[in-house]
Specification:
Length: 327
């Protein structure tokens, strides 16, 4: 009798069918949230050079993009607004006719098959590019909360299913929940960017959203990349304040954080954001022939889900959905 152990792990890897049968973690199009940039000016629409394959749209040109999203089985979109005019108090974010609210209304007119999520942050609307009201060169946390609440209400009234506050202002979830309830927008949920790091992976996004800070950086309000326990405290606070789901951003460099947050709060839906830098690095390496784009993108997405994410915001959403349907 052979001395080799009776258990041979390779037996369940011999064929594609067996590997599929053994698979622990699976991806499908409904796992993905597709980000959409909506601009006010026609001249600002078009491809984003630092994010190959990503374009900015106007409200009037959304139809084709929404059709493409639905056709591959995606069921959720995240809308970012890029206004024509910016000022110190983010006035363009607050009126009922703001660019995101108009985009939400348009999407809801086109289909009832998508969950529409809106980014709630002031950075794209301020002329200084920071995520709140500035006094001197400091972000005034408490003065920013009322503006975020008003912005969230405008999005909810337009039909947003979830509002996603991303500015990392202390107390933002409580302020937004109160504002939504006072406006009788009880059904609008909150997906908080609970754990958002001061990451260097956001560069291409800032090109697309025109949100690069005019001075300084965001390290005084976004998280230090060295910290993981702090992420649990941030998530706990947002859950206590009434968020319906939480997010970790970025994703791939913070898989350990995704796992810790999911283990700590398994009952709370968890999103992870595969951010622009993660996306653009894969695209650039593939363009140079160094990596296989499809294989690497899908491997990175399965790693994010395996780490504990229930949903993934990714610029690969449409391509990944097509790839998965052809496997």
């Amino acid at each position: 009798m052979s001395e080799f152990p009776a258990k041979r792990m390779r037996r369940m890897r011999n064929t594609a069918a067996l590997r599929e049968l053994r698979r622990e973690t699976r991806l499908s199009p409904p796992d993905f949230i597709h980000p959409i940039f909506v601009v006010e000016e026609n001249s600002a629409a078009g491809p984003v050079p630092s994010m190959p394959g990503v374009s900015r749209h106007t409200v009037d040109s959304l139809d084709r993009e929404i059709e493409a999203v639905i056709s591959v089985g995606i069921r959720s979109v995240l809308v970012f607004g890029v206004p024509a005019q910016k000022n110190p108090t983010a006035a363009g974010a607050l009126g009922e006719d703001n660019v995101v609210s108009r985009a939400v209304s348009r999407i809801k007119d086109l289909t009832d098959r998508l969950a529409v999520i809106t980014d709630v942050c002031l950075c794209s609307y301020t002329d200084h590019g920071h995520c709140g009201v500035i006094h001197g060169e400091q972000v005034d946390n408490d003065a920013s909360l009322e503006l975020l609440g008003n912005m969230a209400v405008a999005h909810a009234r337009a039909g947003a299913d979830l509002v996603a506050p991303s500015g990392m202002m202390d107390g933002m979830v409580r302020a937004i929940r109160r504002a939504l309830d006072e406006a009788r927008c009880h059904d609008a949920g909150i997906l908080s960017y609970a754990v958002k790091y001061a990451s260097s992976f956001y560069g291409p996004f800032r090109d697309a959203a025109e949100s690069t800070p005019a001075f300084g950086d965001r390290r005084s309000y976004q998280m230090d990349p060295a910290n993981a326990l702090e992420a649990l405290a941030e998530a706990r606070l947002d859950i206590e304040e009434g968020t319906d789901a939480i997010m970790v951003k970025p994703a791939l460099p913070y898989l350990d954080v995704i796992r810790r947050v999911k283990d700590a709060y398994p009952h709370v839906p968890l999103a992870a954001y595969q951010v622009s830098g993660e996306y653009s690095m894969i695209k650039a390496a593939a363009a140079n022939g160094w990596l296989d784009e499809q294989k690497v993108a899908l491997e990175s997405l399965i790693a994010i889900k395996r780490a504990g994410a229930d949903m993934i915001i990714t610029y690969f959403a449409k391509d990944a959905s097509r790839w998965l349907s052809s496997v």
